[in-house]
Amino acid sequence: MSLSALLHSVSYSGSWGQAHLSLNEFIDKAAGLGYDGVMLMAKRPHLSVLDYGPKQRAELRKHLEARKLRDLCIAGYNNFTGDLEHGEVPQREIQVQYITELARLTHDLGGRLVRIFTAYEHPSAGYTAQWNLVLGALKECAQRAAEFGVTIGVQNHHDIAVGYESMLDLVQAVNEPNCKALFDAWAPALQGVDIEVAARTLGPVTVHTTIANYQKRPRYHYEPAVVNYRAATPYAQAVPIDEGFIDYRKYLGALCSGGFGGSVAYEMCSPLMGGGSMENLDLYANRFLEFFHEFRRRTESAAAD
Questions:
Q1: Do residues 3 and 266 touch, judged by C-beta distance below 8 A?
Q2: For 70, phi and psi rounded to 5 degrees?
Q3: Which of 45, 103, 128, 134 is the 20 to 30 Å CA partner of 21?
Q4: Low-confidence residues in the chain, pLDDT < 70
């Protein structure tokens, strides 16, 4: 088992009003903090396929190699059921082409892994039809990515196959050697699932996991007719790795016991407790590395005994 720590560039993209860095500045930041590699957001303001032609890709690969960031994951952003109500628009073809280009980009940068999503459930079709749409699209993406020696990693984020049992079903149904799970604890933890059971189940087919931690903030709606409050879905407030409700020591331990030995990315993908200053972003990123190095040391020591 050889675990590596990656930093997700979305954390420094400014997407939630926080401090932001350019892609090259982010790469320098990740290397300076001591990460083993990076997960690069495959859209603007970072790594858009529209902005990175052959020359830009060669320069970026040289920069990554110079900073000794040996592990790379390209984070795609897709939704296979997008605009499903307009059947004349070939959305599946458009998104498969996008993911194919991400595979080409990944190869050009010296990487081997592309993160993608499944789909949000859409009212224009039934569940089975949407499942089959996602299944067919994933199979085609994997076959096209194989040309570049790239693995398609499916993250449990969107509605289709977001449950861990369904995620396993989906990966097995795709049945392509380069289609794997990028299983995360966030979704099952919020669903109230036993994350250790989920992690052991998905461990054999997982090649990468992305980590962030949260505290639940209760929410309520006032109902004047009964002079009382009705509970609403809690808000998930991002906090440092060791201050949230998700037990990542148990999760990673179970994932590894199930056969996982890949990359672990840290991301800050929502407003943070403490604000969005560069100092706070760096604090969170450093706290994760401290946690990760301790976990890796203990795991390697236990394996040697």
A1: no
A2: -80, -25
A3: 103
A4: 1, 305
Beta bridge mates, 263: 4, 208
Query: Which segments of 109-217 does DSSP mark as H helices, in order?
Result: 127-146, 164-174, 186-190, 195-202
- Give domain limits for the chain: 4-214+246-304
Query: 63 near 29, Cβ under 8 Å?
Result: no
Residue 88: which residues within 8 A CB-CB, separation 6 or more? none
pLDDT for res 1: 52
DSSP bridge pairs for 272: 238
CB-based contacts of 152, cutoff 8 Å, min separation 6: 99, 103, 114, 116, 138, 141, 142, 145, 176, 178, 179, 180
CA distance 301 to 305: 6
Q: Does domain 4-214+246-304 have CATH number 3.20.20.70?
A: no
> C-alpha angle 140/145/148, rounded to 5°?
155
pLDDT of residue 301: 79
Taking the alpha carbons at both ends of the chain, their separation in whole angstroms is 14
pTM score, whole prediction: 0.96
Q: What is the dihedral of CA 242, 153, 202, 184, to 10 degrees?
A: 20
Q: How many CB atoms lie within 10 A of CB 49?
A: 17
Q: Which of 296, 299, 190 is nearest to 244 (CA)?
A: 190
Between the alpha carbon of residue 174 and those of residues 132, 139, 154, 253, the distances in Å are 10, 5, 11, 27
CA torsion 58→59→65→68, rounded to 10°? -150
Contact 2, 303 (CB under 8 A): no
